[in-house]
Amino acid sequence: MKIRKPVVAGQFYPSDRAELNTLITEIFSKEKDNINYDLAHHKIIGGVVPHAGYIFSAYQAIHFFEIAKKCSTQFDTVIIINPSHTGTGNEIAIDDNDSWETPLGRTEIDKDFSREMAIPESDIEEEREHSGEVMLPLLQHFLNYEFKILPITIMHQTFENAKQVANEIKQANEKLNKKILIIASSDFSHFVHPNTGAKLDQKVIDEIFALNTQGIEEVVRKNKISVCGYGPIMALMEYSKLLNHEPGISILKKGNSGDIIPSNEVVDYVSMLFYQEIKEKG
């Protein structure tokens, strides 16, 4: 069995199991009263989740994982779509390990799913990449049942590549009929003044709520916005639109690294939920 060992344990999150669980629990206890549990009543498609160190971004991220835990669906497979910070490997790739390991244990990769997708399998893209890895301990902590993962890296972030990923997921699951959850791993503006970052982020958020996927790429490039995972965000948007022409979208929480360590140069974090609205009978 080919196992991917954690590469950012001890940096982005504690490498000790007990310390890791304690940190997540402490952050959750501070945020639980701010979580919109009503959203758990919808059919959840996925979400945008930040991938920085837990002491900075978990305050936003745990909103998504707690809602995923509380929803009525037990997911078979969590598809983690992340960008590349290393610039190594294929334009798009599915990780070819058999499982990923964290201080909280091992989680299998869904090989049935990867076999149904016309995307290269490789381990180079995730070898030193943190943006997919940091999602797994949070999933393992919050989801109290067995699930598999499918890590996908989009190195070349374009609308066409994002659309391909979305289509491949949809076509594969038409055969497999699994209950899937999609994570688009992304931080927002990097190392800018908080006011500047908020304005730049809003340009991207406006395109998300307008469901203008191509507009994401255009506004990011035109304004040089350092949203590092706009490719995964576009993939999630395109997949959501394949399921529902007008999916529901909610911002769960915004914040930045300056909330923890005051600074005039911060990294912004936004967690968002994509879902299909459940109509009440009447």
What percent of residues are in strands? 15-25%
The H-and-E topology, N to C, reads as EHEHEEEEHEHHEHEHHHEE
Query: What's the arrangement of strands in the largest beta sheet?
Result: 7-4-8-3-9-2-11-10
- How far apart are the first and last residues' alpha carbons, in Å? 52 Å
The oligomeric status of these chains comes to single chain
Brief digest:
The protein has 9 helices and 11 strands. With 282 residues, the chain is an alpha/beta fold.
Account of the protein in words:
The protein is α/β, with parallel strands linked by helices. Helices cover 38% and strands 22% of the residues. The protein has nine helices and eleven strands. An eight-stranded mixed β-sheet has the order 7-4-8-3-9-2-11-10, sandwiched between helices. The chain has a three-stranded mixed β-sheet with strand order 1-5-6. Helix 8 (213-223) packs antiparallel against helix 9. It is globular, with a radius of gyration of 17 Å. The mean pLDDT is 97.
Defining traits:
about 280 residues; three-stranded mixed sheet; alpha/beta; globular; 9 helices; single chain
Strand and helix map with partners:
Elements: E1 3-4, H1 17-31, E2 43-49, H2 54-70, E3 77-83, E4 92-95, E5 99-102, E6 105-108, H3 111-115, E7 121-122, H4 124-127, H5 135-142, E8 148-154, H6 159-176, E9 180-185, H7 194-209, H8 213-223, H9 230-243, E10 248-256, E11 268-276
Helix pairs in contact: 1-2, 6-9, 7-8, 8-9
